[in-house]
Specification:
The protein is of the alpha/beta class. It has two domains: 209 residues, 3-Layer(aba) Sandwich (Rossmann fold); 231 residues, P-loop containing nucleotide triphosphate hydrolases (Rossmann fold, 3-Layer(aba) Sandwich). It contains 19 helices and 15 strands. The strands form three sheets. The chain has a seven-stranded parallel sheet, sandwiched between helices. Strand 3, helix 5 and strand 4 form a beta-alpha-beta unit.
């Protein structure tokens, strides 16, 4: 089958061929005819299967066929809305819309947070047919009256599972309330959960259901491998793998923003050019890092799960799980960055004893046994045992066997909190040093002379101050105006204020700050997992109990007798 057989407009087929595509992928073969026929759609497809074109191409076709000239002097109404969970994914989708629709007269734009609103507002005012947006920025602009969604004909929720995991369910519902009742709705998701099915039931009307791959499986073309390592050797192992195997492009996943920064710095110091990608980076920094990684200027990109959504790199060869996720679905999303659209790839997981239980849950979830490869000299230290993993808001048990008592878990949380506070103090000290170095030098003697100098023409400073005081007047040298508002530019010093006095808000130095209401000693000991299926806690939130204490205790024995990975010790 080719794209002409799908009965798409010739202008769209031409644009697709100019992008180098000749035959549709399985998800495109099934989704495009369904969307062209006007059906609501619930589609299950992993990332990298061509699902973006699966909804973009038929959406462009339907809009081009029903295009009507707006009233004279009125802007184009927004007729299609695509919601995406992250900035990167939203930008990628809109780029695809422009590429496939370049021979059509349709207009599109993308809006997301982290950048100024005014340019986005101006583009919307000029009139657009297709709007790609993240939920937060869309609600901001809609609340200010800059976005009118009353004419939307087609709604697409892309990567809906991740949108719910990130807590956007309430924002999504608010957006749905702004849309007309009569519309075509398409929901795409890499994995299906109870929350996804509930959302689909409330949004879709008599939908067709398409599932190209089973919901809990990983792409077969991805070679997966587990490297058992010592807890303190992970950075060393990562640098070793990249250097020894001469990997030119590798995406590394960490559990935290601080971890991403730390790993990127380590790799760079050891001759592997790397950069961190996470939510505390400004949008311009994230865009630049992604561009450098795609061009090959960066050899490694170290990212958190949320920041990596939307990374679309053709033939990305290697993905490394530097830290194992405690939610198995995240593992599927991570390794889906490689092996895209028929290409092959490799996903390596660096597993220490603290994470063996997480890995065991992943194998159960994906219904496969991942091969283990031993790296001589990089295994755990003699006598090393699994320890709790403290993540600020909660303490997780990811090891095999029975978890330690509550006291041990809380002690781990306290230690992690102390370590985090020490990092914050260290960061503040560094900032203070930079601030001090940036200020113009001024000797102490000069300051004293400036403060003590009498008014011009006075012969005796004591007499000068005494006379006005006797009359009940302030001394000329002590006028209140001497400390003028700094905004007026008339401060004590003639020197301008240095620009470096206040650090930028998107600095990486506040990665570890916690909301005041969060109890850093909270653990997941009191949680329970539903044996009938995955529990997802609060709606739209990832389930912190995915690898709960009870599940770990029930799975003491691994396939080789409960002593960890085969050949591990």
């Amino acid at each position: 089958m080719n794209f002409e057989d799908l009965k798409l407009a010739p202008a769209i087929v031409q644009a697709v061929q100019e992008q180098g595509y000749t035959a549709p992928t399985p998800i495109q073969e099934q989704a495009i005819p369904a969307v062209l026929a006007g059906h609501d759609l619930l589609a299950g497809a992993q990332t990298g299967t061509g699902k973006t074109a699966g909804f973009t191409l038929p959406m462009l076709h339907r809009l081009s066929e029903s295009a009507a000239a707006p009233a004279k002097g009125a802007p184009r109404p927004i007729r299609a809305l695509v919601l995406a969970p992250t900035r990167e994914l939203a930008a990628q989708v809109e780029e695809s819309v422009r590429a496939y629709g370049k021979h059509l007269k349709l207009k599109s734009t993308v809006i997301f947070g982290g950048v100024g609103m005014n340019p986005q507002i101006e583009r919307i005012k000029k009139g657009i047919d297709i709007l790609v947006a993240t939920p937060g920025r869309l609600l901001d602009l809609a609340g200010q009256g800059h976005v009118d969604l009353s004419a939307v004909e087609i709604l697409v929720l892309d990567e809906a599972d991740r949108m719910l995991d990130m807590g956007f369910i309430h924002d999504v519902k608010k957006v749905l309330a702004l849309l007309p009742e009569q519309k075509q709705s398409l929901l795409f998701s890499a994995t299906f959960s109870d929350d996804i099915r509930a959302l689909a039931a409330s949004l879709l009307k008599n939908p067709l259901s398409i599932q190209v791959t089973p919901p809990n499986t990983t792409v077969e073309r991805i070679r997966q491998v587990i490297y058992p390592v010592g807890r303190a050797r992970k950075k060393e192992v990562l640098a070793h793998l990249i250097s020894q195997n001469n990997w030119s492009q590798v995406l590394v996943f960490t559990r935290t923003k601080y971890g991403a920064n730390h790993v990127a710095e380590y790799l760079t110091k050891h001759g592997i050019k790397a950069m961190a990608l996470h939510g505390n980076k400004s949008q311009s920094a994230r865009t630049q890092a992604l561009a450098d990684f795609k061009s090959g200027e960066l050899r490694a990109l170290v990212a958190t799960d949320i920041a990596a959504r939307g990374i679309d790199i053709d033939e990305l060869p290697h993905v490394v799980n530097y830290e194992i996720p405690n939610v198995p679905e995240d593992y599927v999303h991570r390794i889906g960055r490689t092996g895209r659209a028929g290409a092959s790839g490799e996903a390596a997981s660096l597993v220490c004893m603290d994470e063996e239980g997480f890995m065991h849950e992943i194998e159960k979830f994906t219904r496969q046994q991942i091969p283990v490869q031993i790296l001589e000299g990089f295994g755990p230290e003699e006598g090393e045992k699994a320890e709790p993993i403290a993540m600020g808001r909660q303490t997780l048990w990811g090891g095999l066997g029975k978890p330690p008592g509550r006291e041990v878990m809380q002690a781990a949380a306290r230690a992690a909190r102390q370590e985090m506070m020490q990092r914050i103090r260290d960061n503040k000290a560094v900032l203070a040093q930079r601030k001090s170095a940036a200020k113009p030098a001024q000797s102490f003697a000069a300051k004293v002379a400036e403060d003590a100098s009498p008014a011009e023409g006075a012969e005796n400073s004591g007499e000068q101050a005494a006379a006005p005081a006797a009359a009940g007047k302030p001394a000329p040298g002590k006028s209140r105006n001497r400390y003028r508002n700094r905004r007026s530019g008339e401060s004590r010093s003639a020197q301008p204020r240095p620009k470096a006095d206040r650090p930028a808000r998107d600095s990486d130095d506040d990665d570890d700050r916690l909301p005041r209401h969060i109890n850093p000693l909270q653990t997941n000991l009191h949680g329970r997992r539903n044996n009938n299926g995955p529990s997802h806690g609060a709606p739209g939130q990832p389930d912190p109990m995915r690898t709960s204490i009870d599940m770990m205790s029930r799975n003491k024995k691994r396939r080789d007798g409960g002593d960890g990975f085969k050949g591990y010790r």
